[in-house]
């Protein structure tokens, strides 16, 4: 070995050592970039609590895996030095995300950062056989994947039902003609494998997944204890994110908020056997009915209810119906605030439009009816992501990669 080779060899050993030390930081580093919390290498260094050299080695490894790009930046980092920008790779792997709801289904390809790369048109036909519907949405997603030429890292499915753990069965697909206990996870895994995709496949409740997406990329960013309540195309669901992770309970059935009673006297009959539940008192059908409108077949119930609020809110009957729903929604939220003490509430689906229509009325009801709400310390915000359940389905599909980038992408 000559005198010029020795320093280079020593440098190579040093780089390998830094990378070995940083291997355990690959997952946390990727999640920081994925959620936008580490836009530069300087921030990544600070958030991980490592040296600049180790952070650089970690970023380089994630770039070599095709997950992020490291770009020259002009922002000053540590000691006034320009800090490199870290961005998710717009040409990197994607996951297949799918959603089924009472008025149809949709498939999409979603990259890191929660970015929807491609999506199919929404289909408005839902077969009574879950295997048929799930097979169709997987085929649609697989076609998108073939056209994109991108590598697939996983697959996720959102369904409008509580999904029992560990079996993965849909226990209450009340607004679908599916049998109770349909093995949706098993069906999804089989259809994903049958489409030639050798990737892990995951299934979850649509509102749970929407909350996860909003926490990482939308209105819930920065929240520690996030409560999400939302209407789907039918019914009402809820979710709780604690310290960045979904709280699903001991068997996946937590936060079935749709069955809180908010109108015990003369309330509508609910599918659960009770009356006056949030599920049937504050969903799109409830608004249309209270406003004296007969739902038509041309659009989904959610689209019709949204249209009513946006174009006919000045109508006395429509405004009265909206106020009735706002008061009942506020009553339900107040009860949840008393029990859960969240630091933020986000509303999706029709509830987002109700908040927009009369934000002060809703906030006043929650403050008046809840112990903690009276302090005014519980912000109530609208969800901000389009297709947040699809993005959430992608989040659970991305999770193995976020946990162990090297291991997940080496298989």
Describe the structure in your own words.
- This protein has 411 residues and is of the alpha/beta class.
- It has three domains: 5-88, Winged helix-like DNA-binding domain superfamily/Winged helix DNA-binding domain (Arc Repressor Mutant, subunit A, Orthogonal Bundle); 94-208 and 391-410, ATPase, nucleotide binding domain (Nucleotidyltransferase, domain 5); 219-384, Nucleotidyltransferase, domain 5 (2-Layer Sandwich), CATH 3.30.420.40.
- 44% of the residues lie in helices and 17% in strands.
- The chain contains 15 helices and 14 strands.
- It has helices at residues 5-22, 26-34, 41-48, 52-64, 130-148, 184-194, 206-217, 278-281, 284-290, 301-312, 316-340, 350-357, 359-369, 388-403, 405-410, and strands at residues 68-71, 85-88, 94-101, 104-110, 116-119, 152-159, 163-164, 169-170, 201-205, 225-231, 236-242, 245-246, 344-348, 380-382.
- Strands 5-4-3-6-9 form a five-stranded mixed beta sheet, sandwiched between helices.
- Helix 9 (284-290) runs antiparallel to helix 11 (316-340) and helix 12 crosses helix 13.
- The radius of gyration is 24 Å and the shape is globular.
- The chain starts with a helix and ends with a helix.
- This is ROK family protein.
- InterPro entries: ATPase_NBD, ROK, WH-like_DNA-bd_sf.
- Belongs to the ROK (NagC/XylR) family.
Number of strands: 14
Report the CATH superfamily of the largest domain. ATPase, nucleotide binding domain
Strand order in the largest sheet:
5-4-3-6-9
Number of helices: 15
